[in-house]
């Protein structure tokens, strides 16, 4: 999206064009978004998927404790049945040998 498109998507926030442009520039410098020239404007897109970003946040959160096992156990105990099953499938996939 261009800065103008992002601004329109955030219209309910009543943000100045320069504010949107500054934030996107800072996000690009932090490599949260990628940007490419399109004529005189920049076109922005996420540098990674939302799932990758959330995964990174979860990993960083685990780094905040000295007892990672206890934190993981508490996290797993808070899951519902579908989430626990999704975790089991993901673990099983990582344990399969790769060709």
Automatic annotation (TrEMBL):
InterPro entries: BlaI_family, WH-like_DNA-bd_sf, WH_DNA-bd_sf. It holds the Pfam family Penicillinase_R. Keywords: DNA-binding, Transcription, Transcription regulation. The keyword Oxidoreductase does not apply. It comes from the Bacteria. Belongs to the BlaI transcriptional regulatory family. This is Transcriptional regulator.
